[in-house]
Structure formats: C-alpha cells, structure tokens
Amino acid sequence: MVTIMDGGVYVFFLATTLIILFSLETSIKRLERRMKRIDYSLSLILNRMEIEIPSQLSERVKQIALDPYRKIEAIKIYREENRSSLLEAKEAIENFIEQNIERNIERNIERNQN
Description:
The protein is an all-alpha fold. It folds into 2 domains: 1-53; 54-114, no CATH class. The chain is 81% helix and 0% strand. The protein has 4 helices and no strands. It has helices at residues 4-48, 59-65, 71-82, 86-113. Helix 2 (59-65) packs antiparallel against helix 3 (71-82) and helix 3 (71-82) crosses helix 4 (86-113). It is elongated and about 80 Å long.
C-alpha cells in the first residue's frame, strides 16, 4: 500500500536525480568546450613547430576524402577500417579535409610570394 509519505519520497528522489543529471550535463558540456580549446591550441602549436601527427587514414580513405562528393563514402570506409563510431569517423575525415585545405592555401601563398 502506497502512502502519501512514500509518494513524497519518490518525488524527492526524482527531483534529486534530475538535479544531479542537469549538473552532470553542464559539467560535461564545460569539459567538451575546454577540450576543444585545448585541441585547437595544440594544433596551433604543432603547426607553428611544423610537427605533423601521423594520420590514421589509409591512402584509400585519403583519396576518397579529397573528393567533396565522396565524403560520406570516406566516412563509411574509415568506420569499417578502424571500427570507430560515426562521430569519430566524421571528425577524422573533416579534420583531414580541413588540414588539406589549409596546406593548399599555405602552398599557394608561398608560391605567389616567390
């Protein structure tokens, strides 16, 4: 038999659980933003020092990723080869594309200056 007291206890536990979940979600979002800033800072330092991190992308994936119309195909193949999540594969391919674009821009600037 459920009494009013038992109902109050359930409401208390539910409210406490929601508060904890909200707090955890806020903390996770804060950590994600911090990780993005650290990752960006690290990439700037590595670029400045001209240090390249070896890519986990196979040559096949790189060739496919360079074609903008085959980005989804590159993500699929990356997932198969590395057994990664969709998000991880998407980020890896997009980072590769972005780095490749930046390198091409830098090369073109250097060629124009010479």
